[in-house]
Amino acid sequence: MGFTEIFAATHDAALKRAGILDEGGAAGADAGPAGQAVRIPDISDFEVEQLGDLAGTAVHAGGADYELTLVDVASDTLLAVPPAMVRALADLLTYETEGDGNVLEDVAEQWAAQEDMPFDAGQARTYVQLVAELAAGIDDSERTGLYVWSA
């Protein structure tokens, strides 16, 4: 298994970036502004959906549709993150719980504990933090969205 990349972009920029990644270009990471992508080795879009479900449950927004959707019929590797998942992921940065719990860390631990996950809770926390920051930066007025590329 290769890697999955989660990134913020406009629709057109997402298609361009996916095209570069589809061709095997590591330059896909250079197709957008620095800090606008998180590349996670050895997972697929399925694990990203698991993260969305865990985030939704953690911020009491469970039951929403967290299924990634195809962006364009010409590419089966580029998927869009639904708005409900973007909000749930962004909320991990600010959601307050009763007591001393940290919801982002809890989600990271639960995600790392999923079957066949290729990283531990510490690495998961880094990934979840970065993805949550990407989600928080999505701006409807700029027509940006969160996308997942997975081969």
Please give a structural write-up.
- The chain has 151 residues and is α+β, with helices and mostly antiparallel strands.
- 40% of the residues lie in helices and 20% in strands.
- The chain is built from 5 helices and 5 strands.
- It has a 5-stranded antiparallel sheet, sandwiched between helices.
- The radius of gyration is 15 Å and the shape is globular.
User: Could you spell the SSE succession in H and E letters?
Assistant: EHEHEEHHHE
Through-space gap between termini: 8 Å
Unreliable sequence segments? none
Estimate what percentage of residues fall within beta strands.
Answer: 15-25%
Count up the helices. Answer: 5
Portion in helices? 40-55%
Largest sheet features: 5 strands, antiparallel
The largest sheet has its strands arranged as 2-1-5-4-3
Q: Count the E strands.
A: 5
Q: Which oligomeric state applies?
A: single chain
Radius of gyration: 15 Å
Q: From the helix content, strand content and strand pairing, which structural class follows?
A: alpha+beta
Mean pLDDT: 89
Shape from CA axes? globular
Which tags fit this structure?
globular; 5-stranded antiparallel beta sheet; 5 strands; single chain; alpha+beta; 151 residues
